[in-house]
Design brief:
The protein has one helix and no strands. It is mostly loops. The radius of gyration is 25 Å and the shape is rod-shaped.
């Protein structure tokens, strides 16, 4: 089937073209709203600025297909093969992309608001500037989760996105907006989150080993039982964050803002907290073995039963702090 035949038959009211062979077809700007092209072969096809609203493209072959500027809002793309596809500026709002393969796809500035991306493979995809408000990337079970390994999400808008259990290891998230996003159990090891906003984000049990969070905003974030071993957290704003049982082993927390933060039972062994602001922080049972607390502000902090015997407290301000033995420092 060629492009002309498809458009002619669609114009007469026919919408079902299941399994059609349209490889390489030029359908630029075509109006194909509601068309059924499930299992169709559209690899290398040109669908630039095409109208595919509510189209069914489940299990379609869209390898290397050009879909820049196309409207795929509410489209069914379950299991579609979109590897290396060009979706620059495409409209994918509320699209169903479950189990789709978007490896190395170009999603620059794409609109993925409320899209269903569960078990989607986005490894190596370019999502720079993409809008993913409320997108669902929740892990269904341990075997099936969204794969974003190596993806570029620089300055992407992920506010309120559900990324529970998602694989974001080594992902470029510099300047990304993850405010209120759910990242419970997500793998962010070695991810680059420089200057990212994670205000109010849920990072319970998340893996942040070796991640770069320098200058990130984690105010009011939930980080219970997260693992941030050897993470770069210099200058991070943690004000109001909830972080009991977090692992911050060898983490760089220089000049970090930790005012009134709950770090109960936190493991801060060998962490660098030089110049950190820990005023009124809850540090009950915290473990500071060989931690560097030089010039840290611990004014009015609660250090009951904290392990400080081998910590470096040179120049630290402990005025009003409750010490490990329960005494208040004058």
């Amino acid at each position: 089937m060629n492009a002309s035949e498809l458009l002619s038959r669609y114009a007469t009211g026919e919408t079902k073209f299941v399994g059609a062979n349209l490889s390489g077809a030029d359908l630029s700007g075509s109006d194909l709203i509601g068309v059924d092209l499930s299992q169709a072969d559209l690899h290398n096809a040109i669908l630039v600025f095409a109208y595919l609203n509510r189209a069914t493209l489940s299990k379609a072959n869209l390898l290397s297909t050009r879909l820049s500027g196309a409207n795929l809002s509410q489209a069914d793309l379950i299991g579609a093969k979109l590897r290396d596809a060009d979706l620059h500026g495409a409209m994918l709002q509320s699209a169903d992309l479950r189990s789709a393969d978007l490896t190395l796809a170009n999603l620059l500035d794409a609109n993925l608001i409320d899209a269903d991306l569960r078990n989607t493979n986005l490894s190596g995809a370019n999502l720079t500037g993409a809008c993913l408000w409320g997108a669902n990337m929740r892990e269904e079970n341990r075997r099936y989760s969204t794969n974003l390994r190596g993806a570029n999400l620089r300055k992407a808008d992920l506010r309120g996105a559900n990324l529970t259990g998602a694989n974001l290891s080594r992902v470029d998230l510099r300047g990304a907006n993850l405010s209120e996003a759910t990242l419970r159990g997500a793998d962010l090891s070695e991810a680059d989150l420089d200057e990212a906003s994670l205000k109010g984000a849920f990072l319970t049990e998340a893996k942040l080993v070796g991640a770069n969070l320098r200058r990130a905003n984690l105010a009011n974030a939930k980080l219970e039982r997260a693992d941030a071993t050897e993470a770069d957290l210099a200058g991070v704003n943690f004000q109001g964050a909830v972080m009991p049982d977090i692992k911050l082993i060898k983490a760089d927390l220089r000049q970090a803002m930790l005012i009134a933060v709950r770090l109960t039972r936190a493991d801060l062994s060998r962490a660098n907290l030089q110049g950190a602001n820990l005023r009124e922080a809850e540090l009950v049972d915290a473990y500071f073995a060989r931690a560097n607390l030089t010039n840290a502000d611990l004014t009015n902090a609660n250090l009951v039963r904290a392990e400080l015997s081998s910590a470096n407290l040179m120049g630290a301000d402990l005025r009003g702090a409750t010490l490990p033995d329960g005494r208040v420092y004058d």
